[in-house]
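agent: user wants the full assembly modeled, not chains individually. Plan: 1) parse entity lines 2) check alphabet per entity 3) run joint structure prediction 4) return tokens. Steps 1-2 passed, three entities, 497 residues total. Proceeding.
--- entities ---
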Amino acid sequence: MSGAENNIHLHEMFHIAGGNFTNAGSISSQVKKILKEAGFSSRVIRRTSIATFEAEMNVICYASRGNLSLFITPDFLKIVVEDEGIGIPDVDLAMQEGYSTASERIHELGFGAGMGLSNIKNNTDGMILTSKFGQGTHLEFLISLEGEDKSVPLLNAGG
Amino acid sequence: MTVSDIVKSFGLKIRAGKNRLDEEVRGGYTGDLLSDVIAHSRKGNIWVTIQTHPNIVAVATMKELAGIILTGGREPDSETLRKAEEEGMPILVSSLLAFELTGKLYQMGISGMG
Amino acid sequence: MRPRALVNQAKARGLDMIAICDHNSAENTAAFISAGDAGGLKVLPGMEVTSKEEIHLIALFDAQENCAALQNLIYQNLPGENVEEVFGPQTVVNERDEAVGVNRRMLIGATLLPFEQIVSVIHSLEGVAIASHIDRQAFSLVGQLGFIPEGIPLDGLEISPRTSKEEAKSRFHSYQHYSFVWFSDAHCLEDIGKSTTPFLLKETTSKEVKMALHGEEGRRVMEA
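--- prediction returned ---
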């Protein structure tokens, strides 16, 4: 993926204020708007919006501040979310957080403490999560554009 | 009595429509259900509410109300402010709660109906 | 309500698909979906959200995870604790009709979120957004805000069983660019299926319901 980084058509960064619930969802809605205007397929827009919303909520819930960056390349969309926050003590455990059985599912849905990481994972084609407990979290995910109509996007670069 | 007199009496904060405060106030209405305000408020009323949605400007403009007072220190949404400036509709903020403010307005001589 | 009893009742009333839409919570959706799977009834996860303007809004999803994501946002913006003596206990159940927990939040309250923001989040999560019982004065978009603000991308407007189709069509003539639907808003078993809306769909999903509400690709809301 490093080679493709030279080929970024659009890079946009959004600031997310931790604890500011009155604007929750506004970043994912802006990202969605950009992708719509660029002419991406509804499948790409849907998956990106869901993953972006979950990531945005995590920053609002668990961090004091963060930035979400959207990169559009010919082959994939990449979203990077960096925050200064409480971090995640055990990333592996957080990722396992589970939907394996019905009762766990109820628990997960019920007590709302989930970070939606499995939902991010399920809607993306690659995800990297690193965290320093007490300092912050770095999350990246990719949405592949393989099989997408390449003629439709994009965009006057520049952004 | 004008909107400006009310602003001075209660130390209201002016959030929009500061050029339209010389409007004569005739009666008042207190309510948060906009459908009810449409049905029962009258021209020239000062309107006391906790709703901050942009629709309050449309309702107040349509009913030719003298101004809107948001109670409990509630602040208007940004879109509400934009519309209020566009329409020249005064939006005022009071830290008092609706019951108390309405009572004080009544004591000042602003009676229920306009 | 108990999942198995509800599924049986819905099937007895001839329904193909229902949605579980508790106020400001989706903790019970998993149990009802499992009971629906076992009993052969399609159950959609959903919620009836209360905006800060005290407007009720129905959200329907296909994926429980997306419904849970909305619930997460709601919970972060829902002040207060339930008072059981007044509002009754808010039981969480499993698919075997057993109580597994109690929700202590004040689900009957209003969230701190503006109506438009909730609609936008529902759409980000691929959900369907329908304004509830717009013919009622209490807790409805039209009652609370007087009229539907322009440019809200709602997927449909729900009319309560108390207003007939003819009446709704004339009263809400200016909103006919939205699809109207009739749901039972059932709060007890007897009310299930009291009011229904037939859809022409390829399969029973919220995605198809959304297409029908927008009249896309042959899907539509049918006249009863």
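agent: reporting back. Chain B has five helices and five strands. The CA atoms of residues 30 and 92 of chain B lie 14 Å apart.
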